[in-house]
Write a structure and sequence with these properties.
- The longest helix has 22 residues, at 154-175.
- β16 (492-497), α19 (503-516) and β17 form a beta-alpha-beta unit.
- The protein is α+β, with helices and mostly antiparallel strands.
- α6 packs antiparallel against α7, α8 packs antiparallel against α10 and α14 packs across α15.
- It has four domains: 3-203, Serine Threonine Protein Phosphatase 5, Tetratricopeptide repeat (Alpha Horseshoe), CATH 1.25.40; 226-297, 2-Layer Sandwich (Alpha-Beta Plaits); 321-420, Rossmann fold, CATH 3.40.50.10170; 436-537, Hypothetical Protein Tm841, Chain: A,domain 3 (2-Layer Sandwich).
- The strands form five sheets. Strands 15-14-11-18-16-17 form a six-stranded mixed beta sheet, with helices on both faces. It has a four-stranded antiparallel beta sheet with strand order 4-5-3-6, covered by helices on one side.
- The protein is built from 19 helices and 18 strands.
């Protein structure tokens, strides 16, 4: 194929997105830290899907409209650092399309080069051995190929792009020692390769179709049957143990074209089947239906309830105030705690489900204040928060780069509505710098990090992003971590109980602190997933 039109580009995007979605679990599994949060593939998948959804809704075959719509959709739907970088790649891609109505090899090459440059500019301190390296090296090599072979086809270009992306990805462990030690390649770069491979398959005449999680080329696309969609709220029993893979496997026996997404206790499920009642029965095992839609594919085409925009409750506009605050956390207890500290909006999300740029934009829009602080409380959320701040007009949005819940809480405590912006910002930054943050969670795989052998099932003590200890016993791990974090200058310990920690374990940990350290102790029930305990030491 020498050139592609807008319609063909749409179809190519669908193939790239489907391939990424099908390989999402593989990308998630590449995360270096053995923490149960494998989120890179999920973040990139949700980001790309957000862009594709907007393209579908627009319904245009005009190339500039498609790339602009895709860019906007991915920008607003970007989750996590990997998702934000992916959105910036296609934002740069869109900027180079201009008014073109079709793309040849040279055009596509110029767009990819622009995308690479845009992604690098979006990151304050670019790190080589990541998705940035993969997009730069592959686009540079492919551009050189086009320069030397000006008559090459788009297929030729894409073959070179994919080949170099694969080679660049394989070289990432040589650039990042932490990857070499963990014996894996960069997860973000792997996600980008899946997109490129999906593009290539489309150009070869075999576009990728979204499957139930794994490629299955023998399975025919279902053109008839009933598209069955449901949104359900998980029962208390399944909130922390819902097994997405198991549900997909069960659905694959009775349906095809399967989508299962879990977000903070809410499951969104879609599948095509001849027996929709079976899907409803399966879903009802896990929770209570909030929405159900079933329609005959042969007769009608309705918008998906899984992609409907959230309807915000309209309220009377509040009087403008000087300051507002937004924070991010997972767990009802933590949300209530932040509300007690005068936070206006708590964005739901954390390590296992990073909020999108649009989530932050929506939160900003709900606050009538001149100056709005955002406390992301996670290093993988900061870029999305900053992207939202950059999109906001008419308000002074300040992103304080909190990387943990204890940092966010300390910043809130130091905020004084009677002070000016400069004074508050400095006081909150000082508070953030004075906090040591730690957490206890379990390892999901055998690996080695920073010379430390880690075994699946062991509990890890993490201090400031570094795994400092492992122990098969949760309580012992927590006690050892506190001992590691405390010194003679420590005055306050904040202990936040997670969803899988019992009151007895928390009481025992508090007793340990009282017996060994002369500090004030603040114990809170956070209810956060993944982390049995979150610990702040000041």
């Amino acid at each position: 194929m020498d050139k592609i039109s807008g319609k063909e580009f749409r179809e190519m995007l669908e193939s790239g997105c489907a391939n990424l979605n099908n390989r999402r679990k593989d990308v998630d599994a590449l995360n270096v830290f053995p923490v149960p949060d494998g989120d890179t593939g999920t973040n990139m998948s949700l980001t790309f899907t957000s862009g594709i959804s907007e393209v579908r809704n627009a319904g245009s075959n005009d190339l500039p409209v498609i790339t602009k719509t895709l860019s906007r959709g991915m920008l607003m739907g970007a989750r996590g650092n990997s998702g934000v970088i992916l959105s910036q790649i296609f934002r740069g891609f869109n900027s180079a399309v201009g008014g073109k109505t079709e793309l040849g090899a040279a055009d596509f090459s110029a767009c990819m080069t622009a995308g690479s440059a845009k992604a690098y500019r979006a990151v304050m301190r670019p790190v080589e051995g990541t998705i940035l390296t993969v997009v730069r090296e592959s686009s540079e090599t492919a551009a050189k190929y086009v320069e030397e072979n000006p008559e090459c086809s788009l297929n030729d270009y894409m073959d070179v792009l994919c080949k170099e992306a694969r080679a660049s990805l394989d070289r990432t462990p040589d650039l990042l020692p932490v990857l070499k030690e963990a014996n894996c390649v960069d997860s973000g770069g792997s996600g980008l390769l899946q997109v490129f491979n999906g593009f290539r398959k489309y150009l070869e005449g075999s576009p990728v179709k979204e499957s139930d999680g794994e490629e299955d080329e023998s399975k025919e696309e279902v053109k008839n049957g009933y598209c069955t969609e449901l949104i359900l709220k998980l029962n208390d029993k399944y909130v922390n143990i819902f097994n997405q893979s198991k549900v997909r496997d069960s659905l694959s026996k009775i349906a095809s074209n399967i989508t299962v997404v879990v977000d903070e206790g809410i499951v969104k499920m879609r599948a095509t089947t001849m027996t929709p009642g079976d899907i409803l029965n399966l879903g009802q095992r896990y929770g209570e239906f909030e929405k159900v839609q079933i329609f005959n594919l042969a007769l009608e085409d309705r918008p998906s309830i899984l992609e409907e925009k959230k309807q915000e409750v309209k309220e009377e506009p509040a009087e403008e105030k000087e300051f507002g605050m937004i924070t991010c956390c997972a767990g009802d207890g933590l949300a209530s705690l932040f509300k007690d500290y005068k936070v206006d909006v708590v964005v739901s999300g954390g390590q296992t489900m990073n909020p999108s740029t649009e989530d932050f934009v929506s939160a900003i829009g709900r606050i009538n204040a001149k100056h709005i602080y955002i406390l992301p409380n996670n290093s993988n959320i900061i870029m999305a928060a900053k992207q939202a701040a950059a999109l906001t007009e008419g308000k002074d949005v300040i992103v304080l780069e909190t990387t943990s819940v204890p940092q966010g809480l300390s910043a809130c405590i130091m905020f004084n509505p009677e002070d000016d912006t400069e004074t508050n910002t400095q006081a909150m930054k000082d508070a953030i710098a004075s906090v040591k943050s730690g957490s206890v969670t379990y390892a999901i795989k055998d690996t080695s990090v920073s010379g430390r052998e880690i075994h699946a099932g062991d509990f890890m003590g993490i201090c400031e992003k570094e795994i400092v200890l492992t122990n098969p016993d949760k309580l012992e791990a927590a006690c050892q971590l506190i001992k590691e974090m405390c010194d003679e200058d420590s005055e306050i310990i904040t202990l936040i109980q997670g969803a899988d920690a019992t009151d007895a374990e928390t009481a025992a940990l508090k007793h340990y602190i009282e017996q060994n350290f002369e500090v004030d102790i603040d114990v809170e029930k956070g209810g956060q997933p993944v982390y049995s305990f979150i610990i702040g030491v000041e």
